[in-house]
């Protein structure tokens, strides 16, 4: 191995072994996160500068408040149970297709091959690195900006749903329905008879990162009251869809783009985007199932805003993952 490549490999190993939440401040934890992002995803100096700018505007973005977060599993414990210590999640074929590490092609296995994909999705919640805690306390606008800084974009709702259900289907937004609620009702009726979870046709406890607990002081929200008691991503190898996407149930709920018109679809190149959609369940779901969480279920318009609104929602169990359009 060439000296520079060997040095990079050693640096990456050290960074991945670092328990980010062992730091005493959010800023210190984020600095570890930035180093991991640069080492694993090979981000350029300009990309890293942009990411730092987005994080610097917020007093809360990170992997949870380190003063009160109590994670049920450490990154080392995750690596002990993950395939190949976490290295088994790498897929060279997909990396060639997607042009990025830890992304999965979005396609329909019934009629297509991975190489037919026109988009890819992060296999893990951001930072999309196995055995790291997901980034939370991020607004939808900030999530879209973070994705863009990496050369990616926020996913449209149907893309996330297809990744979870194991087959990307054509966009199904009933744009003429007149309201978000009406669009949601039409969509959910369409898929109710074929509901499924990433791992199978029925909800199962113990399969995903959904057996943690809220902080005793958490009575609805607040950075100083609610710990982000998430698991490291990829801690549950069985919580995976047929398309190879992890943690879409449990851990962090995820921001998504719900287009209200064709020119608001991120998958068609729009930067205007639609309204917020929160996908998936979160880290206490095996103890308290707050709402349905089957793959293609669309939620009520909770804390709803335009995606790019400065007032878009953030909380202790809400994160995101990115998609990427392929040329």
Instruction: Tell me what portion of residues adopts beta-strand conformation.
Output: 5-15%
Task: State the domain count.
Answer: 1
From N to C, what is the helix and strand string? HHHHHEEHEHHEEEE
Distance between the termini: 33 Å
CATH level 1 name = Alpha Beta
CATH fold annotation: paralog of FGE (formylglycine-generating enzyme)
CATH architecture: Alpha-Beta Complex
Share in helix = 25-40%
Helix count, per DSSP?
Answer: 8
Low-confidence stretches: 1-23
Number of strands: 7
Averaged pLDDT: 93
Shape: globular
Oligomer: single chain
Topology, please?
Elements: H1 3-17, H2 26-41, H3 45-56, H4 75-81, H5 92-98, E1 103-106, E2 119-122, H6 140-149, E3 153-154, H7 157-165, H8 180-191, E4 253-258, E5 275-279, E6 318-319, E7 322-325
Parallel strand pairs: 4-6
Antiparallel strand pairs: 1-2, 2-7, 3-7, 4-5
Structure in words:
- By secondary structure, the chain is of the alpha+beta class.
- The chain has a single domain, classed as Alpha-Beta Complex (paralog of FGE (formylglycine-generating enzyme)), CATH 3.90.1580.
- The chain has eight helices and seven strands, in the order αααααββαβααββββ.
- It has helices spanning 3-17, 26-41, 45-56, 75-81, 92-98, 140-149, 157-165, 180-191; strands spanning 103-106, 119-122, 153-154, 253-258, 275-279, 318-319, 322-325.
- Strands 1-2-7-3 form a four-stranded antiparallel β-sheet, sandwiched between helices. The chain has a three-stranded mixed β-sheet with strand order 5-4-6, covered by helices on one side.
């Amino acid at each position: 191995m060439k000296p520079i490549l060997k040095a990079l490999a050693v640096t990456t190993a050290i960074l991945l072994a670092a328990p980010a939440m062992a730091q005493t401040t959010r800023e210190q934890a984020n600095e570890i996160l930035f180093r991991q992002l640069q080492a694993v995803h090979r981000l350029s100096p300009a990309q890293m500068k942009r990411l730092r700018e987005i994080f610097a505007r917020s007093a809360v973005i990170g992997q949870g408040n380190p003063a009160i977060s109590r994670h049920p599993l450490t990154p080392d414990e995750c690596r002990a149970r993950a395939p190949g210590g976490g290295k088994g999640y790498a897929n060279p074929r997909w990396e060639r297709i997607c042009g990025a590490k830890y992304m999965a092609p979005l396609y329909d296995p019934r009629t297509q091959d991975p190489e037919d994909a026109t988009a890819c999705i992060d296999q893990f919640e951001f930072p999309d690195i196995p055995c790291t805690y997901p980034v939370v306390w991020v607004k939808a606008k900030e999530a879209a900006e973070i994705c863009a800084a990496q050369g990616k974009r926020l996913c449209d709702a149907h893309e996330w749903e297809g990744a979870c259900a194991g087959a990307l289907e054509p966009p199904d937004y009933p744009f003429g329905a007149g309201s978000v609620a009406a669009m949601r009702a039409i969509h959910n009726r369409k898929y109710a008879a074929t509901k499924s979870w990433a791992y199978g046709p029925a909800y199962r406890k113990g399969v995903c990162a959904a057996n943690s607990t809220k902080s005793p002081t958490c009575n609805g929200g607040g950075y100083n009251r609610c710990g982000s008691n998430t698991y490291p991503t990829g801690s549950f190898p069985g919580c995976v869809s047929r398309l190879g996407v992890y943690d879409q149930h449990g851990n962090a709920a995820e921001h998504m783009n719900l287009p209200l018109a064709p020119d608001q679809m991120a998958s068609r190149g729009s930067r205007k985007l639609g309204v917020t959609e929160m996908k998936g369940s979160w880290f206490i779901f095996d103890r308290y199932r707050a709402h349905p969480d089957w793959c293609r279920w669309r939620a009520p318009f909770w804390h709803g805003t335009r995606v790019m609104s400065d007032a878009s929602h953030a909380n202790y169990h809400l994160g995101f993952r990115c998609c990427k359009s392929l040329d």
